[in-house]
Design a protein that fits this description.
The protein is an alpha/beta fold. Helices cover 44% and strands 22% of the residues. The chain is globular and about 60 Å long. The structure holds glycine.
Length: 346
């Protein structure tokens, strides 16, 4: 098992290893005294792993309630969020109790946001069961739900008190879901770790998954420790996301997040070549690595549509956006770009 510390406003240990789900209760008991635990999951993940985590929590002395909602991004809304808050209230949860999020990014974001808001904040444990959640969303404290105006438009920074990542749970992911997690991990490699990138370049992702998650979590922990509230260096983690979010929005959110990030990363590789920052051979290497790991790189939308969708992102303030460009694998930089000039990057 690997343990990684995240030093943000709340210190948190991330435990990574195969077969860790039955250890959840023991690991949580090391952080909080036995109390009530609301196990939050979706109806895909709960039948697979719910009993294992519930029994582990109960065995360690926690009094477990359950909240299970329909799987999918469509559930990440104010209605489900409200139901979860009401469930916490109805079960008599107090500020000293905990929420345990068992699942992928949707479960983690929704349960984390409920944890941030219930009685102005109770502790949250993240138990990611997808590679995407393990490599990215379960760490760093970003929580939220979608509004009609866009994804993650309501949310809060709320650090988990513990992350338990059982890498065996990725064995039940289908190819697309696994590839989506690879997109975020390849992003980390391009940002800060050529050796991580090379694991994907050599097609060894499935065999070296524990090492990959540990590497991504270390990189993310470093950015979060420096800039928890996303006003400075944490923006590097948005590599591939400016146009990735645009692809997601233009597809009506039919393109999964990881696939959209892969397309966004390929677009940024080409944009970096156009800007004179990146060698064309390295851009080709990046796109081939994404493709080799089951990810799309061809963008079905033109530059004008992408720029318009990116510029209308509700989270962008003012007339300028910092776009992450690539100099080399392991070497990126932030480039301020006027919203009116975004299309010219492509
Ligand atoms: N997913 C990017 C971040 O946590 O900042």
């Amino acid at each position: 098992m690997t343990e990684i510390e995240v030093n943000a406003s709340q210190r948190c240990t991330v435990h990574i290893g195969a077969g860790l789900l039955p250890e959840t209760g023991r690991l949580l008991a090391g952080v909080v005294d036995p109390c009530r635990a609301m196990l939050v999951s979706d109806d895909t993940v709960f039948p697979l792993y719910g009993a294992r985590v519930r029994d582990s929590l109960a065995g360690a002395g926690f009094s477990v309630s359950e909240f299970v909602f329909p799987a999918g991004e469509r559930s990440k809304n104010l209605a489900t969020f409200g139901q979860l808050l009401e469930a916490l209230g109805a079960a008599g949860f107090a500020r000293s109790d905990v929420v345990v999020a068992l699942g992928g990014g949707v479960v983690g974001d929704l349960a984390g946001f409920a944890g941030a808001c219930y009685q102005r904040g109770i502790r949250v444990v993240q138990v990611p069961t997808t590679l995407l959640a393990a490599a990215d969303s379960s760490v760093g404290g970003k929580t939220g739900v979608d509004l009609a105006s866009g994804k993650n438009q309501a949310g809060a920074f709320h650090q988990p008190c513990l992350v338990v990542c059982d890498t065996q749970s990725f064995h039940t992911l289908d190819e697309t879901n696994f590839a989506c997690g690879c997109a975020e991990a390849i992003k980390c490699g391009i940002l800060a770790a050529p050796d991580l990138f090379e694991i994907f370049e050599c097609g060894q992702a499935r065999e070296r998954i524990d090492e990959i998650v540990a590497h991504c979590v270390k990189i993310k922990a470093d950015f979060v420790a420096r800039d928890e509230f996303d006003t400075g260096d944490r923006r590097f983690l948005n590599l591939g996301h400016t146009f990735g979010h645009a692809v997601e929005a233009l597809s009506g959110y039919e393109t999964p997040h990881g696939c959209a990030v892969a397309i966004g990363t390929a677009l940024i590789a080409d944009a970096s070549v156009k800007a004179g920052a990146l060698r064309p051979e390295t851009a080709a290497r990046i796109k081939e690595t994404l493709r080799r790991n089951g990810l799309p790189v061809a963008c079905p939308y033109d530059a004008q549509a992408l720029a318009a969708a990116a510029a209308s992102d509700k989270k962008i303030s003012g007339g300028t956006i910092s776009v992450v460009l690539i100099r080399d694998v392991g070497d990126c930089f932030l480039q301020p770009v006027k919203l009116t000039e975004l299309g010219k990057l492509l």
